[in-house]
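Model it.
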Amino acid sequence: MKHLLLASLFLCSSASLHATENSLLQQVIDGNQRSAQHKSRDQYRHPKETLDFFELKPKLTVVEIWPGGKAWYTEILAPYLKDNGKLYAAHFSADSEIPYFSKSLQSFIKKMTAQPEFYEQVTITALQPPNTLTIAPKASADRVLTFRNIHNWMKNEQTESVFKAMYDALKSGGILGIVEHRALAESTQDPKAKSGYVTEAYVIALAENAGFKFIEKSEINANP
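Modeled.
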């Protein structure tokens, strides 16, 4: 069984980490590999609390989905996993004909190569539905994490193929962690998510339809 944890710009309890792991994560978050601009967003995006909730540990194999050109979470995940874990960054395809996708990928690659002391262990893969879906070797990942991407896949009718790709990449017992802009529970969900907001119930249904078992959600990112 593969599990879903939802920290959707939605605290329940999270699994406790050993003090050394907790300390390492905070050191990485405070590290100079992160830009001042990115650090300024911590008060809103709560990276430590979010990654603790997703039960991140330094020896895990993790897939980050569509990390973007600026690599906001990659700046944390890559150094944290560098010595004992593994990070796959499932980015846009190098063959994409969409200028935004190509520019984003090139910006990400440039960032990775500019600071090999932090990023040389990152393996870049591609997620470009419907044809490019191998984000990591099958059943190899302990965690698949996606931050504010669900609405984009809904817009392009790609949710089924993407959730299958994430499910296939995870080991049995692995966890899919999702952060998404949360729509009001009582709102009627637009299947195209034109507003950029998605209800918790809709996200949970997408995951369960792909075979995941919903475990828990969190209010960590429920900003006022």
